[in-house]
Amino acid sequence: MEWLDNQINESLDILIESETLIGMELRAMLKNFKEEKKIVGYTFGKLCVLHYEAFTDCLNEDIYKVAAAIELLILSYDIIDDLQDKDADYSWSNTPELSLNIAIAMLVMASKNIRETSFRHRGLAVETLEKYALLSINGQQLDLLNGCCEEQSYLQMIEQKSGSLTGMSCLIGEALAKGIVSTQVEEYGKYIGVIQQIKNDIQSLKTWGRKNDLLNKKYSLPIIYLLSKENNVSKSVRNYYNGDIVTILDNNAIEKELTAGGAIRYAMSIKNIYKHKALSDLESVALSNASKEYLKKLMK
């Protein structure tokens, strides 16, 4: 898939360079931010391209422009999320006021560039982008309010925040090719985002630093499980979350409880439930074997 990352990256460069309504300073910062994130690859843009290719008989080169537009939206969300959480080391965290303008510009450029393509069904693609972008923003708002402290509400929140963006990327590719979107693609697309979020939640707890969800008093599946237990470690964490200023957290005891106590296994089991549902939906969709293998890799 490296060739596809390169194609999307080239299209991103063209989009940024050819946008006449932004000034030199804004363009320079946008380029720098894009380069900073390039190393992680363009998963969302690739999801769009793969689903477009699966359902069309005639490749329109504008699909790479659409994939680049989706990545602009994703980068804008990453920037906003990092500015809100204040826990990232990217350069945009050093100039939050200016970086917010960059993020807003990318949001507008995303829908604008899809609308300017030659696709017959570009209207549906823009409509799909707007719908799922708003759902993701709503999920982000719920995450910031930090009230999703039990399994069902937490899963509903990450389905919106994370699942909406992966689902959107798959559906835009399908929409451009067929003029319609399907429930199966929407469902497994959403589940991929949920799986990725749960993996990130688990990873967050492996480093005892400023990105650790527990230290930041945020909720995730392992933390929800830990808080539900009745033992000394769980009690100390509950006191910490409730604002007891004399609570001293024993990170070694907490890390041991998260692993040996079943919290991580619990989160992994929920992830595997979503994986099973995603694979079931994926079987009914006519994707190439290579595309299916790529999607399955995202579900691991």
From TrEMBL:
Its cofactor is Mg(2+). The keyword Manganese does not apply. InterPro entries: ComQ, Isoprenoid_synthase_dom_sf, Polyprenyl_synt. Keywords: Magnesium, Metal-binding, Transferase. Pfam families: polyprenyl_synt (PF00348). The keyword Transcription regulation does not apply. PANTHER family: ALL TRANS-POLYPRENYL-DIPHOSPHATE SYNTHASE PDSS1, GERANYLGERANYL PYROPHOSPHATE SYNTHASE. Belongs to the FPP/GGPP synthase family. This is Competence protein ComQ. The lineage of its organism: Bacteria, Bacillati, Bacillota, Bacilli, Bacillales.
